[in-house]
Structure formats: structure tokens, C-alpha cells
């Protein structure tokens, strides 16, 4: 069978984290929010169900763009909506990076960036993080032919964040747009939105999946200067966001007190989880996200992952060639984290 473009034949498929369809698992493997979304979301969805499904949705999701623009202090034409931030990443890559062209991202990071480059038939340079998860000048060196750079900030799997000033310096030095993927920023101490106004090369992607507990609804958005947004609009599917998702996302970003309360709870649990993991001898990176990255060269963490799974606790085991292996553990509710810690204790005896 040779119907397919050679790069599609050759590429590996992106492997999403396991999504078991049975409820028995304590699921700390894909960084979903452990709390239900704002009650305003349900009301917004019910309103659409009452007669709003017959017609196509607004192609640009203007109602969301207006609210997001207010939130971020920009105009609506600075916002592009997507079917999850993965859709935003797809639109940006499709629009900017052609066959045999080159994009760049740090390593280890979100593997989907590599998959998107593969789909384009493009090249990519994974630039290794330092051992302390900092990123040096190599990120911008020898970059003349780059078409796109992407940094997950906070990064996955480390949960670490690069300071906005350094991101601004990278953008100054790069010849191409820099997409700052802020999927986890609702749990972080800084963000890069102000850089979008300072430099047209900086674009920020946001997700409703993590901070707003809407992974199942699929909604994300991009903040970039209007000439870029206008061109990305040409690339997106006409109706890339459905009516339920637009209503749910708009209600969610409007409920600021829900976000603040949820954030306080998740950050407190994150601190406790990190302390307990360190108490039992794991090396844990300080986290700016709703997950933590734990390593321990003296342990077989693949085996720990398997044992946890047997005890119906699911975390993400990640091994990066040329880099160490580790467990990425999402911050659940206090009860979920306690159950995980108990199960982990049993694997370590
Ligand atoms: C760094 C990063 N960016 C983007 C995404 C995608 O998020 P969404 O659910 O908005 O597509 C993820 C999901 O895990 C992620 O880890």
C-alpha cells in the first residue's frame, strides 16, 4: 500500500496518555483538573441545547473572542479559537512550516510538536534542556532558516517555567515566530501575554483543558497580533469550535472566582505532594504546573509505574532517549493524592 505521502508512512503516531473507560482508576496521568468545572458551564451548555444545535456555530467564535480579549487587555482580533490548544498548534504549524522547512523546540517537551513537524514533512531541532531545566543561548543559535519555534511554558514533563524576560530575548534573536504554549499557565506564577504586544513574533497558546477543567469539551485559543491571526484564520477548519464548546468556554473564563478557588486548592495539594515524594527519596523538580516530575536513577520507575497500575493508580511513565526516565504525576484531589502516596509506599518497601 503506497497511497500515503512518504513522511506519513515513516512517522510514528502520537501516543496520548491512557484513557481507561472504567471508573476504577485513580487517574493522575494526563493532567486533567480533578475538580468539576464552574457551574456556569453547565447552564451555558443547557442554553445551547435548548435550540442552539440546529445551526452551524459562529465560525470565529466571536462571543468568546470578545470575553477573552477583555480578560487579556487586547482587541478581539488578537484571538483565534481552536478545538483544544492542540488545534491551535496544528493551525500554526500548518500555516508556517512547509515541507523540508525547519522548526525548533526544547527537549524533552510535548511530543506533539514533533508529530506536527512530521505531518508537514518538516525538519525539527530538539534543543536539549540543561540538567536544571534551564535553556541557554543554543535555543537561538544557528537559527537562520527556522520557520517556527515552540516552547511549552510551563514545560511538560518538568513543570518548570522560563521567565518571560528570557522568552522575550529568545524572540528578539529568533528569525521566526515563537509560539509560547501556556497550556499549564493557570498554575504558574508568570505568563507571556504582555510580550505579544511588544513583539509581533511572540504568540501565546492557551488551553481550557487544564485550568478550567474542560478537557472533554476541547477548547483552546491563540493570542497574537492581528495580521498573524488574520492569516491563521485562512488555515483553520471553517467551524473548528462547536456551539457547546464555545458556550462552555465563554462561561468558564468569565467565572474568575471559580478559577481562583480551584488554583488555591491545586497549589496546596501540589506542595504537599512534592514534599511527600521527596520524603520517600524521589527527586522532584519544583513545579509551576498541575503535575510534578519525579525521578530516581536508583529505582526502576517503569516497574513502579506497572505496580501502581496494578493497584489501579495511573500515572505517566515517560522515558526520553538520551535523557532520564521519570514519573509525571498529575495533582489530583487530596484524597486521590493520598491514595497514590499509599500505593507508592507499597511499591517502595
Ligand atoms: C504542553 C501541552 N500543550 C498543549 C496540550 C493540549 O491541550 P488541549 O487539551 O488544549 O489540546 C497539552 C496536553 O496535554 C500539553 O501538555
Topology:
Blueprint: H1 6-10, E1 26-28, H2 39-49, H3 62-72, E2 79-82, H4 85-96, E3 102-107, H5 112-120, E4 123-128, E5 146-152, H6 164-173, E6 178-181, H7 193-198, E7 202-207, E8 220-223, H8 226-235, H9 243-254, H10 256-279, E9 283-284, E10 291-295, H11 301-310, E11 313-319, E12 325-330, H12 334-348
Parallel strand pairs: 1-11, 3-4, 3-5, 5-6, 6-7
Antiparallel strand pairs: 2-8, 7-8, 9-10, 10-12, 11-12
The protein binds pyridoxal-5'-phosphate.
The site of pyridoxal-5'-phosphate has 13 residues, from helix 4.
Overall description:
- It is a single chain.
- The mean pLDDT is 96.
- The protein has helices spanning 6-10, 39-49, 62-72, 85-96, 112-120, 164-173, 193-198, 226-235, 243-254, 256-279, 301-310, 334-348; strands spanning 26-28, 79-82, 102-107, 123-128, 146-152, 178-181, 202-207, 220-223, 283-284, 291-295, 313-319, 325-330.
- The strands form 2 sheets. It has a 7-stranded mixed β-sheet with strand order 2-8-7-6-5-3-4, with helices on both faces. Strands 1-11-12-10-9 form a 5-stranded mixed β-sheet.
- By secondary structure, it is an alpha/beta fold.
- The site of pyridoxal-5'-phosphate has 13 residues, from helix 4.
Amino acid at each position: 500500500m503506497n497511497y500515503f505521502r512518504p513522511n506519513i508512512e515513516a512517522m510514528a503516531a502520537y501516543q496520548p496518555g491512557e484513557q481507561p473507560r472504567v471508573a476504577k482508576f485513580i487517574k493522575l496521568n494526563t493532567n486533567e483538573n480533578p475538580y468539576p468545572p464552574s457551574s456556569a458551564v453547565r447552564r451555558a451548555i443547557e442554553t445551547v441545547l435548548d435550540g442552539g444545535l440546529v445551526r452551524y456555530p459562529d465560525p470565529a467564535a466571536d462571543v468568546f473572542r470578545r470575553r477573552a480579549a477583555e480578560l487579556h487587555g487586547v482587541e478581539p482580533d488578537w484571538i483565534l479559537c481552536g478545538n483544544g490548544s492542540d488545534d491551535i498548534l496544528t493551525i500554526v504549524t500548518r500555516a508556517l512550516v512547509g515541507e523540508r522547512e525547519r522548526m525548533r523546540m526544547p527537549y524533552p517537551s510535548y511530543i506533539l510538536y514533533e508529530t506536527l513537524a512530521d505531518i508537514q514533512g518538516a525538519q525539527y531541532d530538539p534543543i536539549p534542556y540543561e540538567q536544571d531545566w534551564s535553556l541557554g543561548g543554543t535555543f537561538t543559535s544557528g537559527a537562520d532558516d527556522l520557520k517556527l519555534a515552540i516552547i511549552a511554558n510551563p514545560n511538560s514533563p518538568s513543570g518548570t517555567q522560563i521567565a518571560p524576560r528570557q522568552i522575550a530575548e529568545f524572540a528578539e534573536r529568533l528569525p521566526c515566530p515563537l509560539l509560547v504554549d501556556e497550556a499549564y499557565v493557570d498554575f504558574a506564577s508568570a505568563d507571556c501575554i504582555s510580550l505579544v504586544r511588544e513583539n509581533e513574533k511572540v504568540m501565546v497558546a492557551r488551553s481550557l483543558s487544564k485550568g478550567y477543567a474542560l478537557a472533554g469539551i476541547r477548547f483552546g485559543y491563540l493570542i497574537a497580533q492581528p495580521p498573524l491571526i488574520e492569516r491563521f484564520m485562512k488555515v483553520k477548519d471553517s467551524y473548528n469550535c462547536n456551539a457547546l464548546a464555545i458556550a462552555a468556554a465563554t462561561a468558564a473564563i468569565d467565572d474568575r472566582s471559580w478559577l481562583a478557588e480551584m488554583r488555591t486548592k491545586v497549589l496546596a495539594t501540589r506542595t504537599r505532594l512534592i514534599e511527600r515524594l521527596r520524603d520517600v527519596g524521589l527527586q522532584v523538580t519544583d513545579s509551576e504546573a498541575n503535575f510534578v516530575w519525579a525521578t530516581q536513577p536508583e529505582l526502576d520507575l517503569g516497574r513502579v509505574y506497572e505496580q501502581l497500575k496494578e493497584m489501579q493508580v495511573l500515572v505517566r511513565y515517560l522515558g526520553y532517549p538520551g535523557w532520564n526516565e521519570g514519573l509525571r504525576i498529575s495533582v489530583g484531589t487530596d484524597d486521590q493524592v493520598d491514595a497514590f502516596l499509599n500505593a507508592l509506599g507499597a511499591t517502595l518497601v
